[in-house]
Amino acid sequence: MKKFLIFAAGIVAAIIALSMLGPLVGFAFSALLVYLGLHYYVKSNSGFGKVFWVLLGLIGIFTAISNIPALVGLAAIALIYVLYKKWNNEEVSFGKSNLMKEDDPFTNFENEWAKLTK
């Protein structure tokens, strides 16, 4: 029964993801415009160039706002990923990674900071 419910939820999520394909493509194009605007704004030396890249970035932001339903499609894709992991009996974790080791400089910094602030 559990596998059936996972399968049914996956089918529903796939249908939602496919129906949101248009807004997802529009959202990706908007993100590209925002990225290009920011990237080339920093590299630009002329005033005209900076104005042009800011306008391009603003166009990207406004088109991204109009494609807000794409977030539903992104959530459906994330749900498909989680359901796939559950189907294969793999652990799904969104917390701290198991890859963190004690010799990690950031972990050592946190430990030292905790010692100093006591």
Automatic annotation (TrEMBL):
This is ABC transporter permease. Keywords: Membrane, Transmembrane, Transmembrane helix. The lineage of its organism: Bacteria, Bacillati, Bacillota, Bacilli, Bacillales. It comes from Ureibacillus aquaedulcis. The chain crosses the membrane at residues 52-84. It comes from the Bacteria. The keyword Membrane applies.
